[in-house]
Amino acid sequence: MQYADAVHAKGIHLTLTGDRFHNNVPTMEYNLATYFLINDGRDFVTGTDLTPASWWSGFDVNLGTAVSTRQRLPGGVWTRRFSRGIVYTAEPGAPAQTIALPGTMHSAEWGNVQSVTLAGGQGAVLTG
Is 79 left (phi over 0), alpha (psi -120 to 50) or beta? Predict the structure, then answer.
């Protein structure tokens, strides 16, 4: 987060990309959640080797407008609220934590959930 803040302060913006060694949905969800935490309207996110035929539906999410700044919760979990949802990421190395949601929400990875359990280096992008 400090890196993103530092480059933004210099007028530089970021593109979060996939990881060719971990080209899977959990990695894409973590990158997408992190993107939503840092995005100031001029950052981007993408996956590795995505084509229209292999597009991950999670990238189609519409969280609406940000209604809060990002916040670090105890235990290394970051969150940010939007008009249509919320995102969470657990810092790499953070212990696994279960987060109770304010109601049933939807994740492209897990479907409809009322809580999510995130280990270090995992993220969740939730609508509802």
Answer: beta
List per-residue pLDDT tens for the chain, 128 residues long: 999 999 999 999 999 887 778 788 888 999 999 999 999 899 999 888 888 888 888 999 999 999 999 999 989 999 999 999 999 999 999 999 999 999 999 999 899 999 999 999 999 999 99
The answer to whether 81 and 67 are in contact (CB under 8 A) is yes
Q: How far apart are the first and last CA of the chain?
A: 26
The number of folded domains in the chain is 1
Other CB atoms within a 10 A radius of the CB of residue 118 amount to: 25
Please give the residue range of the domain that contains residue 60. Answer: 2-127
How far, in Å, CA of 70 to CA of 100, rounded? 18
Only one residue has tokens 């979060």, namely 16
Whole-number CA gyration radius for the chain: 14
Q: How far is CA 64 from the centre of its chain?
A: 14
Q: Which secondary-structure segment (H or E) carries 35? A: helix 25-38
The closest alpha carbon to 24, from 46, 44, 47, belongs to 47
